[in-house]
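Cross-posting from the chemistry board since nobody answered there.

I work mostly on the small-molecule side, so proteins are not my area. We synthesized nicotinamide-adenine-dinucleotide and want a rough idea of how it might sit in this target. Sequence and SMILES are below. Is it possible to get a predicted 3D structure of the two together?
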Amino acid sequence: MSKVKGGARLERQGKTSYEWAKSHMKILDNTISRLKKRGNGKPLRGVTVGLCLHITKETSVLLMGLKGLGAEVACCGGNPLTTQDDIATFLASQGVHTYAWSTETQKEYDWCISKVLGHKPSILVDDGADMNIMAHFDPRFAKLDIKGATEETTAGVNRIRAVQRQGKLRYPVILVNEAHTKHLFDNRYGTGQSTIDGYLRAMNLLMASKRVVVAGYGWVGKGVAARCRGMGSRVVVTEVDPVRALEAFMDGFDVEPMSKACRTGQVFITCTGMRDVITKEHIDRMPDSAVMGNVGHFDVEIDSDYLLNRSRSVRQVRPSLDECVLKNGKKVYLVGKGRLANLVAAEGHPPEVMAQSFSNQLSSIMHILENYQNMKNEILNVPESIDRQVAVDALGAMGVRIDRLTKEQSEYAESW
Ligand SMILES: NC(=O)c1ccc[n+]([C@@H]2O[C@H](COP(=O)([O-])OP(=O)(O)OC[C@H]3O[C@@H](n4cnc5c(N)ncnc54)[C@H](O)[C@@H]3O)[C@@H](O)[C@H]2O)c1
């Protein structure tokens, strides 16, 4: 379901974007070809898959792949504001049940998730756990026969772990984010690059010489900090974990508490997955013209309510950039309303890296379907064989060959 006008033009544009992404997602093609060897080429016939993923050109390649394998597919966006309307229109034209448009409110976003669950999926693919949480705790969906689910991102992994800790997990959930070939590449290089893309499109200012404050030095923060340094920015990292703070410092970044960094930073990028990282007090102390935004999964890292609802005035000065005149007279700027700046202001991760993440997703879906009868209602990692196969495919796609252990080396590794 799309609320967007301009159907035929958007559909053509979406198709071209889908084709462009697909041509750079060889790894996913390999996974699909491998799975096609089972079940007469349609191993997912009779299976309904419900997905809550950012609707981007890369996601359309996964969804069309699932359809090609015989699945019934229903999808919604992974966050309000992260849907690309041309892709949603294209997917709907291809028979994917699509509940997504780019300007969704939080209420509409929740409604879209409920519509996907209304298709009675037996497999859920989630990004941030909103769909899994609804499937677990909304009485309307208590009777759904869900065989299992997968989770794409760190924020969702943390929430699913909390559900498991309370002993309330209703079905097995594979934590795709925890695969090496996911978080080491998608979170770091994918978010690193697309965050720069989002900030540049939003502000189009010089990154060289800017004092950029990166909050959080996890996989996302490492990628963002490295890319900002590559652009010539002077990067300051804030952290709460002493080991990661030490790592950032030894990687050559300044490390400061936010209470200090907020006084001198010119550009702020939150990458923590934690709430209240940039508060009203930090915002009031920022230099005039500071630009801030968030690439953590939820819009809880920056006090965007203070900026958008309690400033003296607010106006949109560029697409995805709001100017907020604070009560103290300073002007500060917020990218993408404080939501995932790399998806709201740009297009999210590039296809090559999403091919790795989605190959893990697709193989994990198949793993659940083939094994759910023997699986407990618990969280699981992506099987190592899948993770390694994705790495082999990714190296192959990039034309990289590596050595193999000789028999003697294998024996040496096993000896004491
Ligand atoms: N924008 C995207 O496309 C995208 C892609 C992948 C992940 N994510 C999201 O980004 C967030 C981070 O993911 P990750 O994989 O880097 O997680 P991570 O757990 O590896 O890193 C988070 C880091 O933030 C630090 N942190 C927590 N609270 C903090 C605070 N108050 N101040 C400073 N640092 C703090 C933690 O110590 C940790 O080192 C999550 O919400 C994740 O879901 C977004």
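Reply from a structural biologist on the board:
Welcome over. Reading the output above for you: Residues 47 and 239 are 43 Å apart (CA to CA). Residues 7-182+349-397 form a domain with the Rossmann fold fold (CATH 3.40.50.1480). Happy to explain the token format if needed.
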